[in-house]
Write a structure and sequence with these properties.
37% of the residues lie in helices and 22% in strands. The protein contains nine helices and nine strands. The longest helix has 17 residues. The mean pLDDT is 91.
Length: 263
């Protein structure tokens, strides 16, 4: 365990990993090269059996004051995300999974400046750049201006907030709880709906992360479509009124089909 990490970082970056040797180095490099250094990087590894552990070990040697790793039996992505939240020391938290990476080396600096300028909102969301595993760009999300606003009513109609672009105060997780660990998909949307009407949130007009779509990911794997739709339906039934639920279904199908960069 690394002992000399700062006890009061501004940002905590949480990365959940499991057999991620194909992608993890790009994630780690994007964090370590940030020009804003008041951060910690928390890695939650599900006892990876490939080369992930070795890559992380080398990363820790190069960045001993910023990195902590915790290994545990894999119990689902929501559980891993919540475990990271329990371990953080930072003021604001962002979840950046192992197959995703920061857009450039000024993301944390610009986010810090934005947060201070906006008087420390409860949470902030920005945009992601959706890319194929080999690097080709698919598009920017959310790309429409109508989705670039903190609007609770609009959020009930469509999940336009990618978690790879969201910075949440640690205190908010303490007050409202973490992600529903019974969900493998839409756990982020479930959280946004819980928070939106009870907290102050703002949009930051900047690309925060590159979101990688590939055949093994939960959200973009075509084999998971039915399961993911069932989980989404479970969330909106639980969080929305009957009228809101019906409106969501009416809006989601055409909007989701047209906006191909949506997760």
């Amino acid at each position: 365990m690394i002992k000399n990490i700062s006890n009061n970082p501004f940002f905590s970056v949480i990365t959940c990993t499991y057999n991620s040797e194909k992608f993890i180095k790009k994630n780690l490099d994007s964090v370590s090269t940030q020009t804003f250094k008041n951060y910690e990087h928390i890695l939650i590894d599900g006892n990876s059996s490939d080369g992930t552990g070795k890559i992380i070990e080398e990363y820790i040697k190069l960045n001993p004051t910023h990195v902590r790793i915790f290994q545990r039996r894999p119990m689902g992505i929501s559980d891993a995300m919540n475990e990271g939240i329990k371990r953080v020391r930072g003021k604001y938290i962002i979840h950046l999974h192992s197959d995703d990476y920061f857009y450039d080396n000024k993301v944390l600096r610009r986010a810090y400046q934005f947060i201070v300028k906006n008087k420390y909102p409860d949470w902030v969301y920005g945009k992601i750049r959706v890319v194929e595993a080999w690097g080709a760009e698919v598009g920017i999300f959310p790309r429409w201006k109508i989705l670039q606003q903190a609007n609770t009513t609009l959020l009930k109609l469509f999940n336009y907030i990618p978690h790879q672009s969201v910075f949440v105060k640690k205190d908010i997780f303490t007050k409202f709880g973490g992600f529903d660990d019974k969900l493998k998909f839409s756990m982020d949307y479930d959280l946004w709906l819980r928070l939106a009407g009870k907290t102050r949130w703002v949009f930051m007009d900047r690309i925060i992360s590159n979101y990688t779509i590939h055949k093994d990911s939960q959200s973009s794997n075509k084999n998971n479509i039915l399961t993911n739709n069932r989980e989404l339906n479970k969330v909106i039934k639980k969080r929305l009124s009957r009228i809101e639920y019906l409106l969501h279904l009416l809006v989601k199908l055409p909007l989701g089909a047209y906006n191909h960069t949506h997760r």
